[in-house]
Design a protein that fits this description.
globular; alpha/beta; 42% helix; 10 helices; three-stranded mixed β-sheet
């Protein structure tokens, strides 16, 4: 099906479901999406780096692709979470950024905390993450672990041609590049990577499995930020309740920081006994 045929089919469906008003809404949303995409493409063409400032902290991010440029400019609707994260960091914290992508949280953590551990499976994102840490002179405060997180060890295939900044749902990624899946507890038990005191997680529906593999490690964590992907969790046979239950069972008081139209939202988990 061509793009024009697809749009015509969608327009017919909208009109059938809601008449002229629903069709008008669909056309408006389509136009906004297309104009937004053009803005990110042009922005990436005109800018090789973009600074992100939060309070007194400033990090420069590579913006060679449209999605990298969009991430740097908008923080992908996570500005509130990023600000709360930065305010809460201490100079002696060890931060694990799980699903680091190009390093929005990991780079700020490397500047503020004692050490930043960025965990990211996609090779294109690992490359961009490494560049962002290096261009901000944060290599010495950072460790990159190129792996996915889960409840058991294994491997998963990811696209070799993915662009930096893209998200990947491991349950249906497909691709030609094999990357490992590790339990977070095994990372702390078999390497010299220090246990985290603060943890962030954005892993596109695999959050319940990853938290299951981090149960021992979580007992040392004082603060966690977990993005819940309600729809994507079902692809792993899990639910948002599973995420909440694991955090509560490992000793956290949990609250919701924000909620987006897609059903994604961020949980802030505070372990009062370890504050």
């Amino acid at each position: 099906m061509t793009k024009n045929t697809g749009f015509a089919s969608r327009a017919t469906e909208l009109y059938r479901d809601g008449g002229i008003s629903e069709l008008a809404r669909g056309i408006r949303d389509f136009t906004l999406i297309r104009s937004g995409q053009a803005r990110w493409i042009v922005g990436a063409a005109l800018n090789t780096t973009v600074p992100v400032e939060v309070g007194e902290h400033r990090i420069n991010f590579k913006t060679e692709t449209a999605i990298e440029y969009r991430r740097a400019r908008t923080q992908m609707h996570e500005r509130q979470v990023l600000e709360d994260f930065i305010r809460s960091l201490r100079s002696d914290d060890i931060v694990w950024d799980c699903g680091s992508n190009v390093g929005l949280y990991a780079t700020f953590a490397a500047e503020i905390a004692a050490e930043s551990v960025a965990i990211e499976p996609a090779p294109s994102n690992v490359s961009a993450l490494s560049y962002n840490l290096s261009q901000n002179d944060l290599d010495d405060e950072s460790t990159i672990i190129a792996t996915a997180l889960g409840s058991s060890e294994g491997t998963v295939a990811v696209p070799a041609d993915a662009k930096p900044g893209e998200n990947h749902k491991l349950s249906s990624s497909g691709g030609s590049t094999q990357v490992p899946i590790k339990c977070g507890d095994d990372i702390t038990g078999s390497t010299d990577v220090p246990d985290p005191t603060v943890l962030t997680m954005d892993i596109e529906g695999a959050e319940a499995d990853a938290l299951d593999g981090l149960r021992e490690t979580l007992t040392n964590v004082r603060l966690a930020y977990v993005e819940v992907h309600e729809d994507l969790l079902a692809d792993y046979g899990r639910s948002a309740d599973d995420v909440m239950n694991i955090l509560e069972e490992t000793g956290f008081n949990v609250s919701c920081l924000n909620e987006r139209r897609s059903g994604n939202y961020h949980l802030k988990a505070v372990a009062n006994s370890r504050e």
